[in-house]
Amino acid sequence: MLARFTILLTCALQGVVAGDKKHERTTPGRGAIVVDTSGSHPDSVTTIGAAVSKLQNSTAAQTIFILPGTYTEQVYVPSLSGPLTIQGYTSDSRSYQDNVVTITGNLSRQTPGLTSNDATSTVRLWTSNVKLYNLNIANTFGQANTNGQALALSAQKTNQGFYGCSFTGYQDTIYANEGRQIYARSFIEGATDFIFGLRASAWFERVDINVIGPGFITANGRDAANNTSFYVLNKARVTGTSGPNSTYLGRPWRQFSRVVFQRSYLSDVVKPEGWSVWDAVQSLANVFYKEYKNYGPGAATGARANFSSQLTAPIKIHDILGIRFESEYWKSAVSIPNLVTLHIANFPASYTLEELTEQRYWTLVKEHANDIFQTTRVVYDPDTVALVEVLKPRPLRYLAFGSAPNRTFYQWPTQMVYTQGEVRVGDEIREMVTVEVDRTYREREGGPNSWLLDEPLSFMSWSSMDLD
């Protein structure tokens, strides 16, 4: 008997549910340290620095909640023994677009006494297991011909997550320097090397990149083959005000530099070469500059630099952040796609039962308002995209279903055949929960109702996966 599991995906389109406050973050949680620039909130402090000074060096989770306002200060968060969340007040936590908390500074390497890039940063994070939500972090120093390094964020420890944040600067906006980091549904602005660092493995998920001057988006400083640093920008959107052919995707700060742009929109601000050298001396033999299925006027590959190339398959998030990262504190339970990837056929195209071969496939079902179901068969092609049009705001439900193997009877081939599909609904899908998976095709510790597949099953919400 075939074991079948069903996952229900429910999409609440923007404006459909009046008065839905599920995604508001307007009230501090119990025990949170509250920051209020006006000082009117009971038991609050007026600066973020004062809130940081109230943190306890214990293993317990702690939260700083920041009320609306502009906070002109440099925020330094030292190493803590336990996890930390910093939440900005917002009416919609799923995006940076409704942020009302701004932390701003204007320090640079031209500031007397500052001798390191980190020292210029508006926010300096030196603690692990930290999550930031809905904060605008800015360095307003601007452009300089020399010593123009002026950071908005300095991320100096592992397990740091940034969700619905905005980072603005000109040179060296984000210092993604150490450990594992994730940036989701955020805004990043700059001109010169504005995503840079030496040792971080950083995943950028659906970030909006705004180029404001000629230069280079990334400057990864991986310096040796055993350095695990890797920047992956997945489904990013690269636009800007710098004019056509004004920026490169990256240049190698060190000779083992490693960066991938995949499934991203590249506007005409991106130069046809795509990638740049650092100087005329540095070797390019070990540079890893790759792209995968980017699109837009800046994505044409015909004139790309000869030390870059195209991938035949995308980089997977688990290969960058680890197979178990989703269960860890710093990984938010909420990501915010406008293109939900449904990895809905991570089984072989055929398998054998008592010498008989059966074909199995996944089906994507769209429920219309009149209860008529339209079914789209997802074929065995890793690049298949199933498009579901949204003509007007209305509740939609998607059902992905298929057959899971009964491990008593089925034999797996050595080479798996995968497929995947995507549901495109504009900007209306606003939340995603990811089911933990890996490539070993075994039942995970949660028991037989939790299957490990090849990639995340990415859905708005999901019911239990029942095997029968």
TrEMBL record:
It catalyses: [(1->4)-alpha-D-galacturonosyl methyl ester](n) + n H2O = [(1->4)-alpha-D-galacturonosyl](n) + n methanol + n H(+). One of its GO terms (biological process) is pectin catabolic process. InterPro entries: Pectin_lyas_fold (IPR012334), Pectin_lyase_fold/virulence (IPR011050), Pectinesterase_Asp_AS (IPR033131), Pectinesterase_cat (IPR000070). Residues 1-18 form the signal peptide. The keyword Signal applies. It holds the Pfam family Pectinesterase. This is Pectinesterase. It comes from Elsinoe australis.
